[in-house]
Amino acid sequence: MSNHNRIITWIVISLLIALLMTIAPFPRWVALLQPSWLFVIVLFWVMKMPEYCGVIIAWFVGLLTDCVTGTLFGLHALTFSLTAYFVLKWPIRIIRSPLWQQMSIVLLFASSNLFFQRFILSISGETISSRIAWFSVITTVLIWPIISVILKHAEKQPIVYHS
Amino acid sequence: MMLDKRVDGFHRVSEKTAAFFAYPFQFVIDTPIQWVRWINTRVTTQHHLIVENSELRAYEVLLESQLQRLLLLEKENAQLRRLLQSSAQVPSPVRVARLLSVSLDPNLLQIVLDQGTKEHVFVGQPVFDAHGVVGEVIGTGLMTSRVLLITDTRSAIPVKDSRNGFRAVAVGLGSKGQLMLINFPNTADIQEGDVFITSGFGLNFPVGYPVGQVTSIATEPGQQNRKIILTPFAHLDQDEQVLLAWPNKDKLYQAVQDQLKQQIQQPSTIPMGQSR
Questions:
Q1: CB of B104 within 8 Å of any CB in chain A?
Q2: What is the pLDDT of residues B100-122, one digit of tens each?
């Protein structure tokens, strides 16, 4: 079961690093444009390893995001789990498709995620940011190739080196 | 989410658990930045330290002389108030708190302080910096607390003009970093450059702390009221340390008690239908 443990370690470490990037103190305009790190990581793992990371894990990660970013409690939980549900529902062979197709699907999900967030924030009367925050969708899509390259190693079997 | 928004008890519990779970991560982000700052202060040239030292000494002498005048003014103020038979204002105890170097959601104009319920921080507590009012505590955890800045759209502070005493409420305009005045009479004599201070109404902020200065007054053709924009004095983007104040409400409670006793003893003098 070492492969199982390895995968879980990869998932946890990538989520932790994404969490730390989310609360790192960037200047305000950078923070508005920064990619949604946790969203990208969750999306990647839900697409790649649905048996390990499903709607419930997405919900808990979303709740943790709410704790850490101080938004309305349960906002990110709802949007992350909805996105995970839609990803799992549509039988799209995402991981094997070419990169530009992957990026356009990520664009779709990231923009729907942001749309849901702003919608719920506006109907609950909380403050929403300026319109420039929509560009964070573009940065989210742009880091997708980097993330997929870094985390692709998770699925490979450990290589045995012969001396 | 709905529970959090509507039910205050749930919100307090969720606030506490959120602060509890978020604290390790905030600690991990904040501590290296504190180390960098520590190294920065330790590793400076001696020349720089000597220059800074002499500047600070000169500034200290200036502040001490101003402090003497302030104490004298306070004493005179207390005497005058006694003559008018109104209670004197007691200065409230303050404590310095440090901002954690983490950023919350950029939509929310909030900051995180390194003090929480362990240090008796309470929700609604006013927060200042050296230049003016910064905001109000809206959530406390054990180790940290969150402050809503005055520029957030949900924030409203009762203010008054320091020049002629006109009262209004200053609400935040969001990411622009400015405040807008509402609830003021249209005929009020407010000009550009007027300094607005807290008026003490709402019993939350102590009286007399500077909030902002008027930078633009716009008359819109269709609207009756003018649109007055203030720029806050506090350095909201650059603060590293802020002051938490524990406003002293003892005199107020005493006055309310006296009023109640008076009304109980003379019930016939109160006309029916008067609400108080």
A1: yes
A2: 877 777 777 888 888 888 888 88
